[in-house]
Amino acid sequence: MKDMPKIYPKKFKDKILDLAINKNESVNDIAEKYDISVNTVKRWVNESRKAVIDGKTYSLKRYNELEKHIKDIETENEILKFVLQKGVQWSNDVDKLLKLVQKSVDNGYHRTTVLKLLNVPTSTYYDWLKYEPTDTRKQDEKLKPLIKKIWENNNREYGVPRIQSSLREKNIYVGNRRLKRLMNELNIHAMTPTHKVYRKPAVVDDKTSVEDM
User: Fold this and answer.
1) C or N terminus of the chain, fewer CB within 10 Å?
2) Domain extents in the chain
3) Which of helix, strand or coil describes residue 59?
4) Sorting pLDDT into bands at 50, 70 and 90, what band is 120?
């Protein structure tokens, strides 16, 4: 008949764990000092480094990994929500992207994580930081508010030809391709007005038979 395993009081077990984990004493020294087997001490230590989640047991290392992964996902979701709220078309507006990244960092997000979510290489981002806009680009930024104002003041129905004509009236000359590019960057286009079409109600001839209807 096998010997029954010895049952140790919880207070004693906690003391052993405190020595092994918190005070970093050698497992062999603890086992010898308190007359218990080395395997027992190791088993207690391993069991203490496990966490139970929804009935499943995980090692402490795995638990910490999962916890970090969850926090990363939560952070990424917050950044994406922040980005979507800003509605930035960063591919067309580097300045807005740079401001967005900096704003995210100021709000406590990691710069590398933000760039990863925006699908922007780190090297590209730092190149953009050094970027100096050309004179043409500076003029474009001045033209954009004016183009948008003309478009909005005309029920958003103006396209390239009529906006171009309105600009010429102000002695501002912009080529077709350039104006089209700026309108695309502003995400505006001519909207065709919808008119209600009146249709005359159909009249059924009194002489029409039931079979003909």
Assistant:
1) N
2) 10-48, 64-129, 135-186
3) strand
4) confident
